Amino acid sequence: MDAEMARRQMAMASAARIVEVGGKEITEREATAECVLTTTPEACARLMAGTRKGNPIEAARVAGLMGVKRTPDLLPFCHPIAVTGAEVVVEPDESAGTIRVRVTVRVKDRTGAEMEALTAAAVAGLSLYDTTKEFDRAARIDGLRLLAKSGGKSGDYRVG
Fold this sequence. Notes:
By secondary structure, the protein is α+β, with helices and mostly antiparallel strands.
């Protein structure tokens, strides 16, 4: 094989593409992800009381749902999938100064919902940060991770 042919093969092998899933069976799948906004107890209490922007907890829920729907627009390798349901749970702990975001996404499709759940958790966390920064510039979003997935060829997964 000459150098030019090797270069072309390497370029094709590294070219971005969406993986073919058309031959896979449509199955029910579910994924759950989470992240945690860490701030001060005072800032957390101010968020819980509502701000001049409105209710940041409800805004985070809506932002997470929007994240589920927009995931394929944000991630280049992500297939649009048939989402059958999604829940965004926002759990503040004022005394600890944390707000846990947990998202569960259910689909009936050929590929899973892990990226939708992770994106939704991140977007909900960012929505909370956007409101928190007025009270605490040192606030941070930690622990974005997949907690569980079910369905599909690779089977079930749960964090220890």
